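Hi L.,

You mentioned the student needs an example of a multi-chain input paired with its predicted structure. This one should do, with 758 residues in total across all chains.
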Amino acid sequence: MSGDHSHNNSQIDSGSRHNDSHKHKDKYKDKEHKHKDHKKDKEREKSKYSNSEHRDSSDKKHRDKDKERLKLKDGSSDKQKDKHKEKKKEERSFDGKPKKEKENGFESPFIKSEPENDDFYNSPKHEKSLKRERDDDDDEFKPKKIKTEDDRNEKKVKKRKQGEEDVKPKKKTKDKKGEVATDGKKKAKKEPEEKWKWWEEERHADGVKWKFLEHKGPVFAPPYEPLPSNVKFFYDGKQMKLSSGAEEVATFFAKMLDHEYTTKDIFRKNFFKDWRKEMTSEEKSKITDLNKCNFSEMSEYFKAQSEARKAMTKEDKLKIKEENERILQEYGFCIMDNHKERIANFRIEPPGLFRGRGDHPKMGMLKRRIRPEDIIINCSKDSKHPKPPPGTKWKEVRHDNKVTWLVSWTENIQGSIKYIMLNPSSRIKGEKDWQKYETARRLKKCVERIRAQYREDWKSKEMRIRQRAVALYFIDKLALRAGNEKEEGETADTVGCCSLRVEHLSLHQEMDGQEYVVEFDFLGKDSIRYYNKVPVEKRVFKNLQLFMEDKEPEDDLFDRLNTSILNKHLQELMDGLTAKVFRTYNASITLQQQLNELTNSEDNVPAKILSYNRANRAVAILCNHQRAPPKTFEKSMQNLQTKIDAKKEQLADAKREMKSAKADAKIRRDEKSKKTVETKKKAVQRIEEQLMKLEVQATDREENKQIALGTSKLNYLDPRISVAWCKKFGIPIEKIYNKTQREKFAWAIDMAEKDFEF
DNA sequence: ATTTGTACTTAGTAGAACCGGT
DNA sequence: ACCGGTTCTACTAAGTACAAAT
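Structure written out for the whole complex:
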């Protein structure tokens, strides 16, 4: 399994951001036109290949297939088959019957919540009274009381159901940022203590996301403030006063003047087109060429402004901070089912120029200002509805408890819907996250069967099945994304597994001493380059040759497959299985294995953390989570090296001192000199430790140059693995998770014991 | 069967916040 | 207090998935 995950570091080493790679840009740009007919191509291919499936024997292609099959029919493949049969049997037996392990209720279809709970959730009376004072102190009785997650003084939430080990000594959670808890270990347990443990409660019935929801609506972007009159705009060398509408859009461009975006043709073209729409007819007739526009005064003005902001007095900064805090308190929370929950993004996205990633055809377009009239509010019927700003109206107020969002609007660039939703620490996100990992753990139980199945399918008579099987192999082995098809010309040209094109792979019968190497080179999500050379099974290789036969580079590799076909198939293999579950599963299982492999219980804490980071890194490489090397990377490495050198000096000095102290003690043989020796010894040890720490840090940083650990940590790694590891090796959880992360993973920190296994 | 619409997760980055050293 | 950097957070784009409409 993860033995499969032999990742070539070349994936990272030679991978570069698309943006930086002109070679790439050109390569893909050239395709643009041809690619336009992609849909048609697909049709063509389809008829071509669908026939071939049936006129078996006459088809040359098929003869090859047969040949191949014969060749492969040797002992090993038979064994393979038998093994497969066995597996299948064994799997079926456990698959068919109800799971014994009740995985926190996430096992298969959601289970109904029991009536008692339903009842109280349903009672609007209670909810109505939420806002009013808590006259009852019987908070054992289902809450009228709103549990505020951040209210540390609040009485502890009583458990409703399971888990009786409750009541632990109440301790202030201490999560000041830098805090270096050296004892750690048990901290993990204490942390979420006074907070609501939603994970110990029943979940809502199927599809129902909440019973009560109240919030204050979104915070709108501040209105446009016209430029002071001394900041001028010049067109063709002549000063020109812009109308407020045109000026605002101009400032968006001016603010980005230093960004490379503004040098890109598409960006400029799109911007100019949209800018002109905001101009008065007079302006429109005058301003006809972006190259003749001079925004530099505006640009300077904004730079000065930001300098001024930095230079503000402490008091002023504090004032701003307080104001932000006030807004946060007022708009940053909602009440969902008796609990005050943090909202993730309560501010409406301000207008500006669209910054698409990679070669985005819409970059530079104007993202228009969102007004109350664009906003749909979602809340409980019986809640206090948020009110629109004076003199305005919401587009709609609805009461849909089958969805989790509080506010939505339609964005004008792609016409997609944007949402305001809750923070990852919220129950509604946490439950889903937990469930995601439970699904992945269920996959763990049947992944061998599924693997056997797709390997078998490589031999299928049907092209669509072979394609499906090879695609699934990639998804499993390489943790590729599913690869939904995208609308041509609406987005950057990126692909995932199902949307790979012939041009994205090259096949090497033999390369670097390995057989059957597939070289992948494509742009994935966010136009991050995926580059990898992978030796594959011969059968996969032959299949790929077959899929690529008679196709143009811009044709789909898997012309008989798309994500919905694939997912439909996966659904049949396991309830809840989709392509992305493989990513989650492989990421988490890799972390667990790597931790087992790399952690050395003899090591000190920093060394163990290095091991952890390395395990994390293995996952990040698997998932191709890259980052631009920090601009300051070289320098910071150098600094660190300087520090290390200095520390080495210091160590040498300390050692020398120790020696002389020893010599001294040998002669004098008195208590005092003995003590000195001890002190010096201690000093040496301390310095050695510091040096070690620095060296570990250097290694860690170097290895992390262009790898981003955050994404996998946040989205792919079952937090219980990390929590268990921390508990097992006495590592304080805050060494692994910062405050936000601890909030998001509170459920895992609370429930995972040191023996947790993914 | 395909397309469209919706909801929700996953992603990298810019800039704010913070920190340790001077 | 400031400097030079690192870490954290907010932001929002770009994916996946699935259901409804065509």
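You could point out the following to them. Residues 177, 344-345, 347, 349, 354-357, 360, 413-414, 416, 418, 481-484, 486, 491-492, 494, 496, 524-527, 563-564, 567, 578-580, 630, 632, 635-636, 639, 738-740 of chain A lie near DNA strand C (CB under 10 Å from a C1'). The longest strand of chain A covers residues 514-523.

Best wishes,
N.
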